[in-house]
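Lab notebook, bench 4. The sequencing result for the construct came back, and we need a structural model before the next group meeting so we can plan mutations. Quick request posted to the team channel:

Model the 3D structure of this chain.
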Amino acid sequence: MNSGHSRFIDVNGTSLHYLEWGEEANPPLILLHGGSAHAHWWDHIAPSLARTFRVLAFDLRGHGDSSWITPPAYEIQDYVADLEAVIATLQLDSPSLLGHSLGGFIALSYATAHAPTLGALIIVDIGPQLRQSRYMRLLRTLPPPIYQDEMDLHNRFRLLPADTQATADLLRHIAHHSVQPGEDGNLHLKGDRAAMIRQPCDLTPLLPTIVCPTFFLRGQNSKNLSQEKLGQIVQVCPQAHGVEIPGAGHHIFLDQPFVFLDIVTNFLHEKEIVTTADAQRGQGAGQKKRYKN
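Done. Here's the predicted structure in token form:
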């Protein structure tokens, strides 16, 4: 897989790592990963997006190869401030945002204040309400897993949530970039456990302010965003539409990468989306629905 060019940028006293693909003259597209993930989650689809976009995939603070924050500062406003600084520092004009899970919520939060400056907004399997998770709070207090070697890593590494249709090769790639060698010779997860929890946040009252073309996706088997909630969100956002991806759970772009790429690329270029029937057939050139005005 093509991991792009590895770069670092200093913003808000924090060193953020990111991967970049495509020509600098292309329209910018920022990819934001989910919680406990990292920029390399996008390696299997970013090169395709980079045919027509300048693609930048960031490790959020406390994730991947970006800095840990002491004392911990991992609230939504901290992530949004980093995104604001990155866009300003790199002078990204009318960027489009594509965010999954936590990254989607960060993108959504950014859009409530900056929607007129965005080319497009794509939110993957998360709604406008971020709640505290008892499971994540418990997980944060437990010792992180330690792996003896790559074989042990590949045997025991799991996503959060664990359910996925991703290929074994893709999971091995993600696992490989999730760890680093420790002084004890073992492999340790890169992410800061303190970044696993944050205060609740509700963006529902601000959804009408998101006036840029907006696309919400949910996995058919996801427990994170219900079909009913997806419909409610679409009705409130001025230029939004939503699609359910068959055969996918929370990790849509890992479970169904070709379908995901097809409909996302179509949206980014045409500001249209394919119908659910098209998604089921894996087609992006069939019947489309235009965004409501």
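The chain has one domain: 5-133+199-290.
Will bring this to the meeting.
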